[in-house]
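TL;DR need structure tokens for one chain.
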Amino acid sequence: MILETKSAEDASKSGGGAGGGEAADTRWAFREDGPWVFRPEDLVWRSELEGLRAAQQADVPQWVAPRRWPPVRRFLTAAGRLGGALLAWRLREGRKPGPASRLGLSRRLRRAFETLGPAYIKLGQIVSSGRGLFPEELVEEFKKCRDQVPAVPFKAVRRVVESELGQPLEAVFTEFDSVPLAAASIAQVHRARLQTGEEVVVKVQRPEVADWVKRDVAAMAWVAPRLVGRIPVAALANPPVLVEVFAETIVEELDFRLEAENMIDIARVLADAGQGAVVVPRPHPRWVTARVLVMERLEGFSYDDVSGMKEAGIDTEAVFHSMMIAFLEGAMIYGVFHGDFHGGNLFVMSDGRVALLDYGITARLDEQQRSAFLRIMMAGAVNDLRGQLAAFRDLGALDPQVDLDALIVLLGADQPVRDPMRMTGEEIALQIQTILKGLLGEGARLPKPLMLYAKNMLFFDGAVAELAPDLDMFAEFVRIYEHFASHHSEAIAGQIGFDPSRTHVDLDGLKASMGVSGETESLTHRELMERRKAIQEKLEGKLDSSWGGSASDT
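>> reply
TL;DR here they are.
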């Protein structure tokens, strides 16, 4: 039967159906007692993948091709929705400043983003991971963009599933919940049970989402070049490249066969690394198409349900640490990592392991890029600024001909580091301007791998605030470094000529780079957030009355 509401049945009961109870293949980071045994030779949809990824990427230049005229209709729609949200806020909540006003603005902006489609919802997901960087009310409201976007009617879902699978819904499923577990920018996810008995979740692409994405990319591609030279920080971000990166990543999200392949690759990397703390759901061997993805059902705590996890005896600091290690190992050792960490893409299972979901955006690095990431971390551990800048250059973030020594002087990095807490707002603003001007003068930019890496680090900055606010950041840095030293020292030494097992972290250098005195024994993330807030207030003139401008003036 087709259920009209979500089942109350405990979905943690799996293992029934074909293959249940058989020995798990440990070459992949799947749950041990999965509903079917994973064998690559059984994947009927995989035969269609040869050349598909390259073909998808070949379409990107057409998406971002320069256009003489702007997409006026799309611009007017966006301006109307966002302008209407701001006007309604101004007439109502905006009359009285305070938390209620900020909450009202955040709610109206979130609703406008949802109505504007996938590209804006993706932006909302990024904002939702920026705790400490964006206002608290905005972060909390935009969390709904992760998995609480208004759902597509079930009739439309049925049409997509039956069209993709080539048969009636009831021929494949005995149960299929009409109310989705989650709904986001590209797709929504439904509980279901196969005719063969396995409990699964079904990811179904929203109708016409590809057309919406193409229109938004076209609009972005027209605007992006016109931002260069007008806004200083836009030159660093390189808007045209940002749009191209967005197109390159989202085009693969539109074919779930590529996502299923990404799941397999990440599962293999995690297993090779011995990372038993992160679990990937198995894709179904048969029911995977461009717009439908059936996978095994996993359940657990939302990553920000800290009280629930602690009541269940789960060490939330260990959860954060395992996620961080898995991400860094993927980027620096194996050259492949999940490129879209956010709260809607993961949860914590009852045994403390992290179930990692949604592999539409997966970064794949070539050897030079992977080596550059590795050198950035190792050089940072020993306070080798020149080595870090060289790695950023090799990653494509700086001009290949850049004079590194001159850049160090230009950035003022050859001078003693000053604690921003002891500087005036004017001094902080001047320092930011000097650094930004120096980087732009040397052709600094954000290449695709670095953008995805930075996007994930933004998530982790918010995650540690949720899971481990009292974590000592110095001790955690040392712990991560020691993990690489004990598990990968031979590989690292062979690849970049640096043996982490023979070198210790330069904590004094790390403290100096953060503007913290050498006498500071520890710095929790909670204290770091307090520092950021104080610095921001200085920039806004709240702590330093002599500074008459605002942070936006920088």
